Amino acid sequence: MNPTFRFYEPGLVSKITHNRLTHWDQVGATYFITFRLADAVPAGPLAEFVREKREWLAANPAPRTAELEKEYHQKFSQRFERWLDRGYGSCLLRDPQNAKIVVDAMKHFEGERSLLHSWVVMPNHVHALFSQVGETLNGSLHHSWKGFSARQINQRTGNSGSIWQKSYFDRMVRDWDHFASCARYIRNNPLKAKLLPGSYQQGESTFVSKMLGVAASGQP
Question: CA nearest 126: which of 34, 39, 190?
């Protein structure tokens, strides 16, 4: 049985939260989200990136047209993702046991707070495509994933403090084409980053596998 999806509906009231970035939230919506380790991007390039992004957002306040959203992702999201794929920082998530902690956190409330459609844990960042369930909102769900996984990884490694960057990137999925594009990106990310088997963990729902037509590469 195929899951029921709710895509972005411009006419509905969205909750807006601010955590360096503006995040739009609608109950039951479907999201593509990226979150990363705190040291995943070098400080120098990051400072220039933040300055440019702040200026662009000030010149193009939300809500933005589809054309402006596309421009934003070309100028900033895609550029940022290229940095992440270069494997900067400690890359704690290359360790399979640490990666499994993150996967288990995302799956913990499966069917109760979220439906996880597709995901990949890269060495220094995570991508996930999911739908919210019930009254759960993206911000609280993302916060619980990072909080639980940070505590468990610190306990395992003997460290303390947050391992994650506080901010994150999220996109509310607009339609079926956008959904398929996000799922395809997640599936292909390890190959694009030229990762070896064992340095990442990846999975997708049966529904997504059927949609894309080929079994997912990587590790279930």
Answer: 34
Alpha-carbon distance 61 to 2, whole Å?
A: 37
Joined tokens for residue 168: 């994150």
H helices of the chain, in order, are 43-59, 66-72, 78-85, 96-107, 138-157, 176-192, 206-212
At residue 143, the pLDDT reads 85
Give dist(CA 58, CA 208) in Å, integer: 37
- pLDDT tens by residue, 70-105: 888 788 877 778 878 888 889 999 999 999 999 999
Q: Is 200 helix (H, G, I), strand (E, B) or coil?
A: coil
User: Which tens digits make up the pLDDT trace of 134-146?
Assistant: 766 656 788 889 9
The distance in angstroms from the start CA to the end CA of the chain is 21
Q: Say how many C-beta atoms besides its own lie within 10 A of residue 215's C-beta.
A: 9
Q: Give the angle subtended at the CA of 77 by the CAs of 118 and 134, to the nearest 5°.
A: 40
